[in-house]
Amino acid sequence: MKNLHDTIVAAATPPGIGGIGIVRVSGGQTEFIARTLLGSLPEPRTATYRKFRNRDGQNLDAGIALYFPAPASFTGEPVLELHGHGGPLVISHIVAAIVELGARQAEPGEFSQRAFLNDKLDLVQAEAIVDLINAGTSQAARAALRSLSGAFSTAVDALAEQLIRLRLHVEAAIDFPEEEIDFLSDKRLQQRLVECADTFVLLQEQAKQGRVLRDGFQVVIVGKPNAGKSSLLNLLSGQDAAIVTEIAGTTRDILREQIDIDGLSVELVDTAGLREDPDRIEREGIRRARNALRSADAVLWIKDATEPGPGKIEEPLPDGVPVVVVMNKIDLCDAQDARAEGAIQLSAKTGQGLGHLRQRIRELAGYENQGEGAFTARKRHLQALEKAAKHFDTGQIALQEARAGELLAEELRLSHQALGEITGAVSSDDLLGRIFSEFCIGK
Ligand SMILES: Nc1nc2c(ncn2[C@@H]2O[C@H](COP(=O)(O)OP(=O)(O)OP(=O)(O)O)[C@@H](O)[C@H]2O)c(=O)[nH]1
Ligand SMILES: [Mg+2]
After folding, report:
1. Most exposed of 141, 173, 276, 399 (fewest Cβ within 10 Å)?
2. Which atom of ligand 1 is found nearest the CA of 224?
3. CA separation for the pair 326, 318 (Å, rounded)
């Protein structure tokens, strides 16, 4: 178990060569370390040019020192930042000198964890730091920044506040049993329940979007051999990524391409054509294709429109995954022939229908370019929200069907508790450990 009272040190800039390398120190011994290393304590929050010397007075580097006394710092503890020259050796010498003075190397995410423990950030905000650093599209970066500035946390807190008011109402009703029936059929209570249910729906939608912004959306392309799956991958990605030939059974392996549809990060997965009598290599390809279907957020079923028959899906697909039928090669046939209920007509050769397909993928992802409104969310948040919503629903049913005030109160308490897991108002050490371990060192 790492000690939360240790003074920690780490390079805050990535390993490698750069113009500037930053070393960050946080904890109770920071002031002593700063005095020793810099000769004296720099003025708080003022960029100060200093020589950096180790315990023996040996010169290591010279640069800018910044000192942040507690609690006005990122971690809430005294923090020292040293901006030196960005070479791996220089940085490692500075870190080693600080360790000699009593600090220890920080573990991944330890600075952010301290910020959380000292109430500088809630969990959603701490996670947003990682999301901002890892953002792959500018939309995702903006959304992470909004989570970091508290947009998601505020929405969760507002919902929690609604639950608290409901709980007060219901618990008061239980405490006055002779009036309980009246209390529970009270119009105000009904209205609060409806409002709360609406907020749950809205927040779950926003969080789902936020998840897609953060994690991207995976679209798996499947169909019979030669339908034009690889051609479609090439068209959507704007690259000659996959081999295309007129021979059925060209693609045998899984091919993945990352594309950006109006800020939505999409992973396209091209697969081997599905057919009954494959050779040995193809059989393995088909097995992999079916495997890929399991993790799909959406499926494109590609059908060669020049072949007879409607675009029927001839493959069992996982439950609940949306599917779009794409009638391909419409450049070769009459538009009439290629018409199928709900299908998209496309030519992977000429690009006709591409705009429609891109639009449909956006719709499947539930992605609307929300611009300023969007924030990032994670699977963990969605799960906690779902759990909270479920308890809320169970409680509502208990009230409606059995007028069971006690049960409603208990379910509201559980719902409130599940919400608390999102921002970290309720959290276990295990959960915290898991969350912060995916941070990089120095963050
Ligand atoms: N005219 C026309 N030809 C197309 C179109 N899309 C694909 N093709 C041709 O159809 C053939 C098969 O295309 P692929 O993209 O390799 O098909 P696939 O579904 O990946 O095939 P497998 O990998 O074998 O399963 C190639 O000769 C393509 O040039 C289209 O929209 N119009
Ligand atoms: Mg192919």
Report:
1. 276
2. 25
3. 18
